[in-house]
């Protein structure tokens, strides 16, 4: 969890909107690389304490929030937390997981007297900092109600699902939709380049037909070739998500032809050294396939030659 989401929680705990039982309580954070938590704990306007271990978090907090890379990382954290007394506590997982992970987590934590809420989010770090994330919560109604103020602190809540694994399925389906747009935009801008249509004119088309900040943001990053991910969504993380959605598709006996196409575009981008670039680096594969960018040549090299 980055500064945006952690800051939202810290500000809520200091505000009058905090649940009475948690008002004026402190926020504890843990990261296995302590230096990564430093921007949180050193922030002058936030009261955030660094925990030395997951056990310290479990001992100090009644509500614990996770934001990790994948099923493996989340499972490792849950195994550590299950060594602690979790009776009466709630674990909220904002990560992008498989539905199978959520079902296993619910079963494991139920035996510890702990409720599990899946609440994956959509949005980049700037959206998190502005409390404009989109959250899909899922789990037992009473537990979701208990953590609702903390979920709402991050932005807009979609309808609550009645089982944790449904939120994870919905997140994967949502990402499938977004990645499909990114693939389409990469190909559309490449076709526009081949026909001498200015990219700004294509962006005007996007603004007219898809007036949504996330869609417009992706289109502009691709058109400007602004592919540094920063703290945003990388090609390699997107590959993980597409693997998860293809697993879901196979289990559901539901072909996802677009996901297969996106997977290959992401894989090609990663193979060309763009694994840590923004997911919009799929533009690279479109440009190469169209002969605009020679195979094996990176976009930043092409930009240097143009300048």
UniProtKB/TrEMBL annotation:
Record-annotated 3-hydroxyisobutyrate dehydrogenase-like NAD-binding domain positions: 167-282
UniProt-recorded Gene Ontology molecular function terms: NAD binding; NADP binding; oxidoreductase activity
Ranges where the 6-phosphogluconate dehydrogenase NADP-binding domain occurs: 24-156
Keywords for this protein: NAD, Oxidoreductase
InterPro entries (UniProt xref): 6-PGluconate_DH-like_C_sf, 6PGD_dom2, 6PGDH_NADP-bd, HIBADH-like_NADP-bd, HIBADH-related, HIBADH-related_NP60_sf, NAD(P)-bd_dom_sf
This protein's record includes keyword NAD: yes
Catalytic machinery residues: 171
Stated family: Belongs to the HIBADH-related family. NP60 subfamily.
Protein name, per record: 6-phosphogluconate dehydrogenase NADP-binding domain-containing protein
